[in-house]
Design brief:
Blueprint (H helix, E strand, L loop, with lengths): L1 H25 L4 H19 L3 H6 L4 H10 L6 H9 L7 H10 L4 H14 L2 E3 L2 E3 L1 H6 L6 H17 L1 H22 L6 H7 L3 H14 L1 H14 L24 H15 L1 H12 L3 E2 L11 E3 L8 E3 L6 H7 L1
Parallel strand pairs: 3-5
Antiparallel strand pairs: 1-2, 4-5
Helix pairs in contact: 1-2, 7-10, 14-15
């Protein structure tokens, strides 16, 4: 009963935070949304801080006792969650320290993340006589015109250089914040906490990284050498890495065509997956247009198990955008 109540509380809090987060991401420059998002974070942190004791106490239960309970009672349904929780036990701190880390997250890591997001949204890049936000400027790196790509890249570099002190401070502060947390929790390697969160062994990640690095010469190096020849260059400039091929037709892929392409691809793989993906289009669970103040990039927000995900992207009709949508 206690686990069910804890689950319900977390689901409710997750819904509230998800709504505030998505509303904020849709326009990070809106002061009202900024305040609402900050207020919700503060209130949910205060409430969830009072619930921290529950998973901490569960991890203090004897393994044998918990195993028997999961085998013979309604706790069987929660076995995956409880087993995941037990994996964090070696890195669990004393209750007061856990509470301190939890409450300071809003003013520590969370605040710096938010500063970076709002800064990136506010930046403007002047190229070809226009002042553009980040997404339209990045989109010009996919233009057929090499000079247009170069000017867009130089505009990006100029503005990023003007803000390099702020970006350096944010990066170094976040790195130190993580180092402190990892040291207190006893993580030996910088990637250990992420591997734990992803429920993947270090050896698996290391093997993947080694395999990719080993393949650099025969895949990425060969590809860029071939692309340089296709573009008639001895060496690619960095703004040419994502350039379309010379014979590639210039086109803007309409939203309807993108939808059809994505759903057809899913349908060929699994009709059930196509049905699920279709709901995102039909129900308006995708925020696609480029707007002033909107978060750059793309993400699929998982929300909570009792709801459904929401997708944010900045769709501009390029093949890359269709792949991102998929």
């Amino acid at each position: 009963q206690a686990v069910r109540e804890f689950e319900a509380l977390n689901d409710l809090m997750g819904r509230i935070v998800s709504y505030a987060s998505l509303l904020y991401a849709a326009d990070t420059a809106d002061p009202k949304r900024q305040k609402f998002f900050g207020d919700i974070q503060e209130k949910i942190t205060a409430i969830s801080s009072k619930l921290l004791f529950f998973p901490l106490e569960l991890n203090r239960l004897d393994d044998e006792m918990l195993e028997k309970a999961m085998a013979k009672s309604e706790l069987r349904h929660y076995r995956p969650w409880l087993e995941d929780l037990r994996k964090e036990k070696p890195y669990q701190l004393e209750d007061k320290l856990e509470q301190l880390f939890h409450e300071k997250a809003v003013t520590a890591r969370g605040a710096w993340d938010r500063l970076f997001s709002e800064t990136m949204t506010s930046l403007r890049f002047e190229a070809d006589g226009e002042k553009l936000s980040l997404e339209p400027t990045l989109n010009r790196l996919l233009d057929q015109d090499g000079e247009k790509r170069r000017r867009a890249a130089e505009a990006l570099a100029k503005v990023f250089k003007e803000n390099v002190r702020l970006f350096t401070l944010i990066t170094n502060t976040l790195a130190k914040d993580k180092e402190i947390s990892d040291r207190w929790r006893g993580f030996a390697d910088v990637a250990d906490s992420r591997n734990l969160a992803n429920r993947v062994e270090k050896e698996v990640v290391d093997a993947l990284v080694a395999a990719v690095r080993e393949a650099y010469p025969r895949i990425s190096h060969r590809y860029y050498a071939m692309k340089a020849k296709w573009l008639g260059k001895k060496k690619l400039a960095h703004w040419d890495r994502n350039a379309p091929l010379p014979e590639e037709p210039t086109q803007v892929i309409g939203w309807g065509n993108a939808r059809e392409t994505v759903l057809t691809a899913y349908g060929d793989f699994s009709p059930r997956m196509a049905d699920i993906a279709g709901q995102f289009f039909a129900q308006g669970w995708i925020d696609a247009p480029v707007r002033e103040g909107k978060s750059p990039g793309a993400f699929s927000h998982p929300t909570v198990p009792s709801a459904h995900p929401y997708i944010l992207l900045n769709y501009q009709g390029k093949p890359r955008d269709v792949m991102t949508l998929a």
